[in-house]
Design brief:
The complex is a heterodimer. Chain A is mainly alpha-helical. Chain A has one domain: ABC transporter involved in vitamin B12 uptake, BtuC (Orthogonal Bundle). Helices cover 74% and strands 0% of the residues of chain A. Chain A has 14 helices and no strands. Chain B is built from 14 helices and 17 strands. In chain B, strand 11 and strand 12 form a beta hairpin. Chain B is an alpha/beta fold. In chain B, the strands form 4 sheets. In chain B, strands 7-6-5-8-9 form a 5-stranded parallel beta sheet, covered by helices on one side. A 5-stranded mixed beta sheet of chain B has the order 13-10-15-16-17. In chain B, helix 9 runs parallel beside helix 14. Chain B folds into 2 domains: 189 residues, Rossmann fold, CATH 3.40.50.1980; 143 residues, Rossmann fold (3-Layer(aba) Sandwich), CATH 3.40.50. The chains are: A mainly alpha, B alpha/beta.
Chain lengths: 341, 375
């Protein structure tokens, strides 16, 4: 079988798996909701015993959030790994997660310092805005730095240093905050796909889908970039513009997901590796589409696991992605000890 | 056989560890009979000729078969491994400890606290602001140097896990006894209150504390009996508020679940034997809590508007519109310190009275409640 045909078959299999997992994830949860209920809801039939709010605001929103989050973080991870030529790079390597964390910490823990709490100061939407503001601040610093600095590694180091400084500030805030606020912050840090309302999800879709689709225009320059920066430049790629475009897309994708769902680790690092392994290619035209579908699958599997223990509650999604993601990445690293970059 | 210096050192360390371990758990308490506790499960008091021998059982959330013993003596000046009572200078690592000392009239013995700005007690808050009572920080950030420099007779500490127990190792090495308090692990309101007797031993006023506790217990039981006799209906009760889509509800064997039952309510999640909070998806509450008549303990929320702000989906949550919603934050100070968690420990009868009023009086007015308020 030639490689092209093989890739089409793999895509078809992954798509079928994604559809199957969508249906399985939809029926997994504390409440008994069947596919028949989904069908009745989608066809506008009100005979279902399950209230529409459970289907729309909780189950459907949760599964669609898993798909969007998985796809967005995976695309971010792929772009970062290519632009930094580093297999360990991920969407959060530039300090975006830390920036979002700082925003939430200032709201949740800082408010506690002034005798208020996150609920009084605006509740769930404020947490989203604070995380977005924090991530946006770090993003602007990184982009400003990338305009000045030509070296990717310098930008990477700046991101790591920023994350360290932010972590210190967050520690200070935690030191002075009351236990309730610290607990709230810790829970935010565990990540959640269930915190979003359908309206929140709509915002996420409007931000993420166009950006993911826009990355198609970066595929050709990214493929050339893999052959070396000088080669790409000679081939007509505006390397500096490419780098800024990648940073902007990554920051907005990862920042939005973190703002709404909290930090979700390992998807961004693990999925690009899994996708390269499955498709056996470095071609970004294949990889972008591949990481979208694989990321969605990975996230839905994590979501199913986190809701399969309904009798004892819900497992934090961040822990599930770490527990499932790390063995996969270790297996791939050991199995394919070759350098993609 | 000739032992090397390393072997001798190794054996010496082993012997030291064995000695320390014995001190921690194997002191003989079988020859003396422990006083019977009414509801508390976390401590035992053994009266001795010159004082008390105290045993604390499993003082952290994850500890099993772990106990700590303390010998308290009225004439034990400079006696090793013995705490001389009454103590005059103590450190409290929780505002709940402050509440017990306040109930015993021993506030003046407190020289340092953790999280002092959350103390609700007015007099103690004043002393804290005047720096008479020092701030010591929390957990890893505990100011151990300051604790040691304050030269307390004892430190009342609590441990969530083994790591937090380790935070106090240096203080113990400095010769300051660390007394583990596990009142928060009790699964009855009266069990938490009974720790008053434990604290009283350090001030040699156990009789007074026992009488106070008996009076509180009588009051609590009378209220509970009256509630079950007077009211036939059991309103369905839910508790808590979700954060990031996860709703932490009290376990079916928690003190709040028992308090709801004692007040004549039917707790929605009473069909399990967990003491700790259970993380549930918000979806599950939307599915199961539609018929709830009462909704209590909503973290730091002050109004229905704030509930909606926390998550817009609550607009379609039936109890928001139909249930009586009451929060336990009627008495809070400007820093968010909540008296429910402070003096509420000593007044379970007042908490129970509030719950009975909330469950069985239609549109219960705020002025008839002590710790709760209607949202």
């Amino acid at each position: 079988m030639n490689q092209h045909l093989r890739q089409i078959v793999v895509f078809a299999v992954l798509l079928a798996a994604a559809i199957g997992l969508f249906l399985l994830d939809f029926t997994t949860g504390a409440t008994q909701i069947s596919l028949h209920d989904l069908f009745l809801y989608l066809t506008g039939n009100e005979n279902s015993e399950v209230p529409a709010i459970l289907i729309r605001e909780f189950r459907l929103t949760r599964v669609l959030t898993a798909i969007i989050a998985g796809a967005s973080l995976s695309v971010s991870g792929l772009l970062m790994q290519t632009i930094f030529r580093n297999p360990l790079a991920g969407p959060y390597v530039l300090g975006i997660s830390s920036g979002a964390g700082l925003g939430v910490a200032l709201l949740v823990l800082g408010a506690s310092f002034f005798g208020m709490n996150a609920f009084q100061t605006g509740g769930g939407l404020m947490v989203v805005l604070a995380a977005a503001a924090g991530a946006g601040l770090v993003m602007m610093i990184i982009i400003a730095a990338s305009l000045k600095m030509r070296d990717n590694i310098t930008v990477l180091i700046l991101g790591i240093l920023l994350a360290a400084v932010i972590s210190a500030v967050v520690n200070l805030l935690q030191y002075f905050a009351d236990s309730f606020s610290v607990k709230s912050f810790v829970i935010w840090g565990m990540g959640s796909l269930t915190a979003l309302s359908f309206n929140n999800l709509s915002i996420l879709i409007v931000i993420c889908i166009p950006l993911i689709m826009g990355t198609i225009y970066l595929c050709k320059p990214l493929n050339l970039f893999l052959l070396g920066e000088d080669y790409a430049r000679v081939s007509g790629v505006k390397v500096h513009s490419l780098r800024i475009a990648v940073f902007v897309i990554t920051c907005v994708l990862a920042g939005s997901i973190t703002a709404f769902c909290g930090p979700i680790g390992f998807i961004g690092i693990a999925v690009p590796h899994i996708t390269r392994w499955i498709f056996k290619t470095q071609n970004h035209f294949v990889l972008i589409a591949g990481v979208v579908i694989t990321g969605a699958i990975f996230m839905m599997v994590a979501d199913i696991i986190s809701h399969s223990f309904a009798s004892t509650g819900v497992l934090p999604i961040n822990s599930v992605t770490a527990i499932t993601g790390i063995p996969v990445i270790v297996y791939i690293v050991i199995k394919n000890q070759k350098n993609y970059f | 056989m000739r032992l090397s210096s390393h072997s001798i050192l190794f054996i010496a360390v082993l012997c030291t560890l064995a000695f320390v371990s014995c001190k921690q758990s194997n002191t003989d308490t079988h020859s003396i009979e422990a006083l019977t506790n009414y509801a508390a499960r976390g401590f035992e008091i053994y009266p001795t000729d010159n004082g008390y021998r105290l045993r604390v059982l499993n003082p952290s959330q994850y500890s099993k078969n772990n106990s700590f013993e303390y010998n308290l003596s009225r004439n034990s000046q400079h006696q090793a491994n013995t705490i001389s009572i009454p103590v005059k200078n103590v450190i409290c690592c929780s505002t709940t400890h402050v509440a017990f000392l306040s109930a015993l009239g021993q506030e003046s013995s407190i020289s340092g606290v953790s999280g002092g700005n959350h103390i609700y007690n007015y007099n103690l808050q004043l002393l804290y602001q005047q720096n008479v009572i020092k701030e010591l920080g929390y957990d890893n950030s505990l100011n151990q140097e300051l604790i040691i420099s304050l030269k307390p007779d004892i430190v009342f500490a609590y441990g969530i896990d083994n790591r937090s127990l380790g935070n106090f190792q240096k203080i113990e090495q400095a010769g300051i006894p660390v007394v583990w308090i596990g009142e928060y692990l009790e699964n009855q309101l009266l069990g938490r209150t009974e720790w008053l007797k434990f604290f009283a031993c350090f001030y040699d006023c156990l009789d007074m504390a026992s009488k106070t506790y008996d009076s509180i217990t009588n009051c609590y039981n009378n209220l509970s009996d009256n509630a079950s006799e007077l009211y036939n209906t059991q309103p369905l009760v839910i508790s808590g508020l979700p954060w990031q889509g996860v709703w932490y509800v009290p376990g079916g064997d928690s003190y709040m679940a028992h308090a709801i039952a004692d007040a004549g309510g039917k707790y929605l999640f009473d069909n399990n034997s967990q003491r700790e909070s259970i993380p549930l998806s918000m979806e599950e509450l939307f599915d199961k809590a539609g018929n709830a008549k009462v909704w209590i303990n909503l973290n730091n929320i002050h109004s229905k508007r704030e509930i909606l702000q926390s998550d817009s989906r609550f607009n379609k949550f039936e109890p928001l519109h139909s249930a009586g919603i009451y929060n336990n934050n009627k008495r809070i100070n400007e820093n968010g310190g909540n008296d429910f968690w402070e003096s509420g420990l000593i007044h379970p009868d007042k908490i129970l009275n509030d719950l009975i009023m909330i469950f069985h009086q239609n549109d219960c007015p705020d002025d008839s409640l002590f710790y709760y308020k209607k949202l």
